[in-house]
Write a structure and sequence with these properties.
Oligomer: heterodimer
CATH architecture of the largest domain in chain B: 3-Layer(bba) Sandwich
Strand order of the largest sheet of chain A: 11-10-9-8-12-13-16
Bound molecules: flavin-adenine dinucleotide, FE2/S2 (inorganic) cluster
Largest sheet of chain B: 5 strands, parallel
Structural class of chain B: alpha/beta
Helix content of chain A: 25-40%
Number of strands of chain B: 16
CATH topology of the largest domain in chain A: Rossmann fold
Radius of gyration of chain A: 18 Å
Structural class of chain A: alpha/beta
CATH topology of the largest domain in chain B: FAD/NAD(P)-binding domain
Distance between the termini of chain B: 32 Å
Distance between the termini of chain A: 28 Å
Chain lengths: 278, 495
């Protein structure tokens, strides 16, 4: 169960992992996520499903090394099994024909964006995608995204690839050029915040997918809560997608940092143990 | 209930019971003091996670059983939500037939070791005991004796696996593995059904595992019950959310003929006051899940949790007591209950309140939070509370708390646990459009069969009652199993 059938590194710290999970593969849709626990002592972390294959019974996630669990996951080999996977969780993306849709993905946020781009395109939209990353090697899934989009713009902060500039510059270029009916932004909270400030200027309805801290993923604990439109929402069951203009971004970012110190200490400790073993 | 009363009466005229009654004068029986449950020293136990109560010895159990008068019309049994034959099992203890006592309890209670530990006996059997009602003396320690019998059986290595009827090949599904689901699964297996329990989490047991802490209900005890169900042929499927991983229709296609939904009241309530989303403010479900299910307090487990020096827990139920005592055990200097009514109105088990008091938990009764404040990183560092007074009784029969205007003051806190109640888990209801629900989000069922508005779906426990108790959940599971059996047998006959 839950066997890793394929692992492919996009860069030193980012990899695509294909996992055997037939139940979820059949039923999952764009926007869904899973919660995994690697081993007996592991924590439960949410990962958005980037792709799936019903026939093979697999799902694909893209993982960036940010702490102990992601580091452990990236260190797992093909053939090894993940102890627990549950899902699909959250509401699937509401896909409909809107006209022109601007999709922007930052960092590993591009992975969860991929099925949405695919579905939007299939629903008859004109999809313009902006991929952004700090530097060339952090741009992922470019070929796939180019395939599913009508147009693809790549932005890097340092100009090492594509155009030089932030994601917002790429978005602005499109918006000024043509009528955009809707925007979808997925990436780090800061990127979604500034991305939605841009679309707000032009009154473009904007959807974001929030990646808060979670435990159960079934609405049982409230770890994932964040204020949206002045009301507390549970991202795992009410989301993960929300109207970007309603999200309380400063609260969201504050809550994402709840365990910063613990995470840092745990990661240092993990690195030390890995070094000793090596 | 009538046939239960008959049955309970019948046993009383067995010759051994008659003999036993004669063997000691009533006066002598009533002259003994109630047994005192041995417990760990409060100042030691508030630093560890070992069970508080260590259980009574054989001699203590027998001494306590002498007190029981074997009443002609035993009122204690009426107080028990599942109608345990209380006099019969206590008298079995008196004749040293401890395994027999356990067997009697297990006729109606699927989880005696659990219920002996967590039932609110003071509001049930022990409240309606002759001693309480008529003699105005401390009641027979029925809960302690129940626990004793179950523990004795478990430790004897002679735990009986209930007889299972020959398989009838009919597949049934149980949604949720809390006490209601486990009880339903057990009974359905006994009746010969092919039972699969689906559980959303990675562990079996529901609140018994993720909620109630080790110092009150060790996980081993729950695991042993689950093991014996496995031996009865019950299959468990963890990490499976019915309504998400597969729909009811998908499961029907896979051959499941009927469903029991015991999905619990897993949606935590908050108070919606300013600052409630600051870091360091948890729902009790999150706090207890991190610690009990994810073992976050252990260094070698990856799940983090925040520790607090000054911890405030909001609420007066079992969940609040469990949280506040957990925080103390994890090193809090001040661990406080903030409750808007007085101690008399607290819904928690009386024993837990006493234990908490002994463990140096501070009680700020008649206080209610109004706002939280945080440091520059968003971590809560202060809360504003307001004094309350009690007015007229409300719908629940408890006196209504009324804020005293202008009485606000601030206290320093660095961890807050909100334990003000839960709402029914909406996942199952939202996946079944035709399911009839109440305005409170609970599933509407027929009380006698626990059948919902969809004929092949039955439900019980907290998803039907809102936040209730282990024993009521379990009782529902058993009634539902009987209801499902009747429904399925009629269907089989019709075909
Ligand atoms: C901290 C705490 C302390 C308590 N202390 C006491 C006490 O001392 N005495 C007492 O009598 N009662 C106590 N209670 C209350 C008691 O635990 C509950 O009333 C009881 O557990 C309810 O049982 P249940 O079977 O209805 O649901 P639960 O125990 O809540 O179990 C429901 C299970 O269903 C699972 N589930 C939900 N939806 C799905 C789905 N769609 N698919 C698959 N699985 C699903 C959940 O993950 C969960 O495991 C306490 C509760 C808490 C939280
Ligand atoms: S992760 Fe627990 S409620 Fe959302």
């Amino acid at each position: 169960m839950n066997k890793i059938v394929e692992k492919e590194f996009f860069s030193e710290n980012v990899a695509k992992i294909v996992i055997e999970s037939p139940d979820i593969a059949i039923i999952r849709k764009a926007g869904h996520f899973v919660i995994i626990r690697i081993d007996e002592k592991g924590e439960r972390i949410p990962l958005t499903i980037a792709d799936g294959d019903k026939e093979k019974g697999t799902i694909t996630v893209v993982v960036q090394k940010v702490g102990v669990t992601s580091a452990k996951l990236l260190a797992m080999n093909e053939g090894e099994e993940i102890l627990d996977i549950v899902g699909p969780l959250g509401h699937a993306t509401h896909i409909e024909k809107k006209g022109t849709v601007l999709c922007a993905g930052g960092g590993v946020g591009v992975a969860p964006l991929m099925p949405i781009v695919k579905a939007l395109k299939k629903a008859g939209n004109k999809v313009i995608t902006v991929l952004a990353g700090r530097t060339k090697e952090l741009i992922i899934l470019e070929d796939e995204m180019r395939n599913y989009s009508d147009e693809l713009i790549v932005m890097t902060d340092d100009g090492s690839y594509g155009k030089k500039g932030l994601v917002t510059a790429g978005m602005e270029e499109v918006i000024q050029r043509e009528k955009v009916n809707m925007a979808v932004l997925i990436g780090p909270a800061i990127m979604m915040k500034f991305g939605s400030l841009t679309t707000k200027k032009y009154n473009i309805p904007t959807v974001v997918s929030l990646n808060t801290i979670m435990v159960d993923g079934t609405g049982m604990c409230g770890a994932c809560r964040v204020s949206v439109g002045g009301k507390t929402k549970f991202v795992c069951v009410d989301g993960p997608e929300f109207d970007a203009f309603q999200v309380d971004w400063s609260q969201m970012m504050m809550r994402m940092g709840a365990y910063k110190m613990q995470e840092h200490e745990a990661y240092e400790k993990y690195l030390r143990t890995v070094e000793t073993v090596a | 209930m009538e046939n239960i009363a008959e049955y309970i009466k019948e046993g009383r005229s067995d010759s051994w019971r008659i003999e036993l009654r004669k063997s000691m004068k009533t006066k002598e029986r009533t002259s003994y003091e109630r047994v005192k449950m041995p417990e760990q020293d409060p100042h030691i136990r508030n630093k560890n996670s070992i069970e508080v109560n260590s259980g009574i010895s054989e001699e203590m159990a027998i001494a306590e059983s002498h007190r029981c008068l074997d009443c002609p019309a035993p009122t204690c049994t009426i107080g028990c939500p599942v109608g345990i034959n209380i006099p019969e099992f206590i008298k079995k203890i008196e004749i040293r037939d401890f395994l027999g006592a356990a067997t009697v309890i297990k006729e109606t209670n699927a989880l005696p070791a659990v219920c002996g530990r967590v039932c609110p006996q003071e509001k049930q059997c022990e409240l309606s005991c002759f001693y309480t009602q008529k003699l105005h003396k401390p009641p027979i320690a029925i809960g302690n004796l129940e626990r004793f019998s179950a523990d004795y059986e478990r430790n004897s290595g002679k735990m009986s696996i209930p007889n299972v009827a020959e398989s009838n090949g009919i597949k049934v599904a149980v949604v949720g593995s809390g006490p209601s689901g486990l009880a339903a699964a057990g009974d359905l297996a006994k009746l010969g059904y092919d039972v699969t329990v689906f559980e959303a989490l990675h562990e079996i047991g529901g609140v018994l595992k993720y909620g109630i802490p080790e110092f009150r209900l060790p996980n081993d005890i729950v695991d042993i019950e689950i093991e014996s169900m496995r031996k009865m042929g019950v299959k468990f499927h963890t990490n499976f959310i019915v309504g998400k991983t597969a729909s009811f229709d998908d499961l029907k296609e896979q051959g499941f003929k009927a469903f029991f939904v015991g999905s619990g009241a897993g949606l935590p309530r908050f108070m919606n006051i300013p600052g409630e989303n600051f870091n360091g403010i948890f729902s009790s479900n999150e706090y207890l899940t991190r610690i009990n299910l994810m073992k976050a307090a252990y260094d070698d487990y990856d799940t983090p949790v925040l520790f607090g020096k000054n911890v405030a827990v909001i609420g007066g139920g079992n969940t609040a007591m469990d949280s506040v005592r957990t925080a103390k055990r994890l090193g809090a200097e001040r661990s406080m209950i903030i409750y808007r009514r007085s101690i008399e109105e607290m819904p928690a088990r009386v024993e837990e309140v006493h234990h908490a008091q002994d463990e140096e938990i501070e009680f700020m009764n008649l206080h209610n939070p109004v706002e939280y404040f945080a440091d520059e990183n968003g971590r809560v560092n202060r809360m504003r509370i307001r004094k309350m007074r009690l007015g007229e009784p409300d719908a629940s029969g408890r006196r209504r708390p009324i804020p005293i205007e202008g009485s606000e003051f601030d206290i320093a806190v660095d961890l807050v646990v909100v334990a003000v109640g839960v709402s029914p888990n909406p996942i199952v209801p939202s996946s079944l459009k035709d399911l009839k629900m109440t305005n409170w989000g609970t599933i509407v069922v027929d009380k006698d069969t626990m059948q919902s508005s969809i004929p092949n779906i039955f439900a019980g426990g907290d998803i039907v009652r809102g936040g209730a108790t282990v024993i009521l959940a379990m009782g529902d599971g058993r009634v539902a199993a009987a209801g499902m059996h009747k429904y399925l047998q009629e269907k089989v006959k019709a075909n």
